[in-house]
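User: Predict the complex with magnesium ion.
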Amino acid sequence: METMNGKGEIVIGNEVFKILLTEEQIQKRVQEIADELTEQYKTKLPILIGILNGSFMFFSDLVKKVDINCEIDFFKLSSYGDSKISSGQVKMLKELNADITDRHLILVEDIVDSGLSMKYIRELLSKYNPASVCVVSLLYKPDCIKYDVKIDYIGFEIDDKFVIGYGLDYAQKYRNLKSIYVLSE
Ligand code: IMP
Ligand code: MG
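Assistant: Here is the predicted structure with magnesium ion placed in the model:
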């Protein structure tokens, strides 16, 4: 990629992003979460719900690694606009297609930051009386949480710094990086 410097860092204007989690580290952790979900849901038929756009890569790797019968569906939300700062508002851009009443749901998110998006989704879903809701987030920023949301599986806890790659964007770009990079000060 043209923005990659000789040290394997991403340079965007005068900002430098350093590697935080390698492809190997991510894949190992995704497999561990998948194994736990396989154990928990082996006698059920859950619906795995990816929250677009950010979770698309994690979702696809996770779905390939779980060894259960499942259905899949997607939500599309927008909260960040095109910058590094959350707009503080959540917009629903695509609703679920599946009928979720009495179903076991596994929500798959890329990152929980303030918790606003997850709170919004949980409140929306609870109206349809699902049998259960489990939340999986690849990343979690404990120092940023503002809304009380339960997360059942966390891939990695990270510092309060902006990250890109493996689905996560900066102004819609860099989602296709296989590793996760963090903005260095
Ligand atoms: P929350 O609603 O504040 O918890 O923010 C959640 C959403 O913001 C995530 O689903 C991401 O799409 C986005 N987000 C939060 N932190 C970052 C980041 O460091 N990089 C890229 N996107 C982020
Ligand atoms: Mg997201």
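The helical segments are 23-41, 56-65, 116-126.
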